[in-house]
Amino acid sequence: MNRITAHPVLSVPERENVLFYWNKSTFYAGKDEVISSALFANGIKIFGHHHKDGSAQGLFCANGQCAKCTVIANGIPVKACMTKVTENMIIESVEGLPKLPEVTEKPQISDIEQIATEVLIIGGGPAGLSAAIQLEENKISTILIDDKNELGGKLVLQTHKFFGSVEDSHAGMRGMDIGRMLAQKVEESSVIDVWKNSTALYVFNDKRVGILKDGVYKIVTPKMILNAAGAREKFLRFKGNSLAGVYGAGAFQTLVNRDLVKPTERLFIIGGGNVGIIAGYHALQAGIQVVGLAEALPQCGGYKVHEDKLKRLGVPIYTSHSIISANGKESVSSVTITQIDKNFTPIEGTQKTFECDTILIAVGLESVSEFTEEAKVAGIKVLAAGDAAQIAEASSAMFNGKIAGLKIVQHAKPGTKEIPASWYEKADILKSLPGPVQELHTPTAEEGIFPVIHCKQEIPCNPCSTVCPEGSITMDGDPIKGRPRFNGICKGCMKCLTICPGLAITLVDYRKDAQNPVVFLPYEISNIRVEKEDTIACVDVDGNALGNYRVLGARPTKDSDNTWVVRVKVPKAIAKKVVAFTIQDKGVSEKLTEQISLDQIQDDEVVCLCERVTAGQIRDLVRQGATDMNQIKAITRAGMGPCGYKTCENLMNQIFMAEKIAREEVVNNVRRPLYVEVPLGKFANGGQS
């Protein structure tokens, strides 16, 4: 079984087993577990084969927005990532086109429940929950819907401590704890009606919204809509991108951090933003080997402290590199990356191939803006917040959701107090990009005890200055975004060390031995044990080796929230440089001798996963003068599949750009009316059959 049985942060509950059948073989799932996670837990990563080319189908988004994970459950095609396993469920792989079940009873037309509300919030993630809390405080009748069975959105997948502001976005708390705290406030509300397992299907022109709630179709008429539906992950074109074992960071975090499934032994990451870097850290926490990370830009776009954290643990990061090939017959067995020049052109002779069984794609997000656009067309007052408005960190989504909630209050209750201008300034700070890399602020003292702060970059993050009981850590410039600096008295409480989201603060103690001080190091991979008398390979902020030293002790403190403190005695020459220690052996990231020539890369990268339309097919039409995506769809079926253009639109736009087609010349695809696929019977009788 590919189950996570020990985790440094997450508790591993005992689950009741549920028997199910997969292609006539017997397996067990955890109670309330979705099919895709149950299959992965039992070592099954191929869910069927595509009807066009026979290629293997597996997981991609794990968010219900694509259809790559389709299986047949008790005779009905369903999305494995959104459907729970039930006792004795018969699940079959989809081989070719799935057969529709025979209709034995004629659907009976019945009344569909229609409900009116002041506000409809679409999405129960950080932005939607923060807005809902403001509406609760002002007693405004609201329906909040979310398509999962737990509120919190991506927050509940985040095991790391959050950046941002302590006051405004709970910085220093773990994402999963923030999500559940916000969810509890909303679910205890007397005016917020929470609909879980509910998907908004469309905002109709008659100002009504169709919603599938627990499989039952309902119609809601809101006076206002807040779109807080989040974002979807972007995909990439490369040879082998349709293999099983290529999927997004959200899918990976869902398997690992929500369902405690170990989906891979050896992971390679494409994309050096915060999403990709954090996913790599989560993989290490789950006991997964991270072979490496490739980022196309000369520097990673994520926070430097996140990047450095991975490097220090032993994960190599290849900047100015891109993937050219996922290798394998049906599922991934290796990945080939190559160095690229400033024009993103591959440089021959720089190819590197690594053994791995999973490739995680983390190359950016795209706002789920459909509901905002539909509401505007319908003439409904609509706001957007969080990633549905602008891609940013969850800390920003929370604060912007709060502002959006108060804007709704102002609209519903004219005369409500104005939102302070300082809030908008703070919102801009929380969503700001990281600043340039700078020299460290290293104290010159070599006596007593004090923190060394290994922050090289201005980012929105102030937990250390907030938590210091002596007020000895201050922020240079802005109180949220400035770089922290120690200047004052330290009594060695270690609060700054254990709250730091980047694990970028150490304490150096010269009091007992000035020549060989003790360094206190934060550590959060405690399922890879470090104990007294062990020898650890200490490294500096960039992951450079500083030597092997003996551990004096390792344990969490009373209030550290599972962050361990490892004590090690080192020579004073390196005491202020030691930040962490390596846990992953270099052999994990050794290159294979096999080489993939750039000449071998054909123009067969898949653009449309649903219909298996390639980049070559799209490019040929563009070169013939096609600039209307609807025309291309009619010829190739690109965008006509179950996902409704959610994955391939961005890839097609990349082809237009590469072919020097101006953006204003491109005619966008007409979106499918419904957000996701719905059986017609749900509309015939409200889905109550």
Structure at a glance:
It contains 17 helices and 36 strands. The chain has 689 residues and is of the alpha/beta class. The longest helix has 19 residues, at 394-412.
Structure description:
Strands 9, 10, 11, 12, 13, 14 and 25 form a seven-stranded mixed beta sheet that branches. The protein has a seven-stranded antiparallel beta sheet with strand order 26-29-30-33-32-31-34. The chain is globular and about 85 Å long. 22% of the residues lie in helices and 25% in strands. The protein is α/β, with parallel strands linked by helices. The protein is built from 17 helices and 36 strands. Strand 5 and strand 6 (76-79) form a beta hairpin. The protein folds into four domains: 17-98 and 235-361, FAD/NAD(P)-binding domain (3-Layer(bba) Sandwich); 114-231 and 370-430, FAD/NAD(P)-binding domain, CATH 3.50.50; 449-588, no CATH class; 602-665, Arc Repressor Mutant, subunit A (Orthogonal Bundle), CATH 1.10.10.
Provide the descriptors you would attach to this structure in a database record.
seven-stranded antiparallel beta sheet; alpha/beta; seven-stranded mixed beta sheet; FAD/NAD(P)-binding domain
Draw up the topology in text:
Layout: E1 17-22, E2 25-30, H1 35-41, E3 48-49, E4 56-57, E5 70-73, E6 76-79, E7 89-92, E8 94-95, E9 114-122, H2 126-137, E10 142-145, H3 166-169, H4 175-187, E11 192-195, E12 198-203, E13 209-213, E14 216-227, E15 231-233, E16 246-248, H5 249-258, E17 266-270, H6 274-285, E18 289-295, H7 304-313, E19 317-319, E20 321-327, E21 334-339, E22 352-355, E23 358-361, E24 365-367, H8 370-378, E25 381-384, H9 394-412, H10 421-430, E26 449-453, H11 463-467, E27 473-475, E28 484-486, H12 495-499, E29 505-509, E30 518-523, E31 535-539, E32 545-556, E33 564-569, H13 572-575, E34 580-582, E35 606-608, E36 613-614, H14 615-623, H15 629-636, H16 648-658, H17 681-685
Parallel strand pairs: 1-7, 3-8, 9-10, 9-14, 10-11, 14-25, 16-23, 17-18, 17-23, 18-19
Antiparallel strand pairs: 1-2, 3-4, 5-6, 5-7, 12-13, 13-14, 15-24, 20-21, 21-22, 26-29, 27-28, 29-30, 30-33, 31-32, 31-34, 32-33, 35-36
Helix pairs in contact: 2-4, 2-9, 5-6, 6-7, 9-10
